[in-house]
Amino acid sequence: MKLTFSLVFLHILMISLWASAFPVIQIGLESFSPQHLAFVRLSIASLVLLVIAIATHMRLPDIKDIPFLLALGFLGFTVYHTALNIGEKTVSAGIASLLVSTTPIFSSLLAIFFSGGVRKKKMGWICSKLCRCCTFNLQQREFCTLS
Question: pTM, whole model, 2 decimals?
Answer without folding.
Answer: 0.68
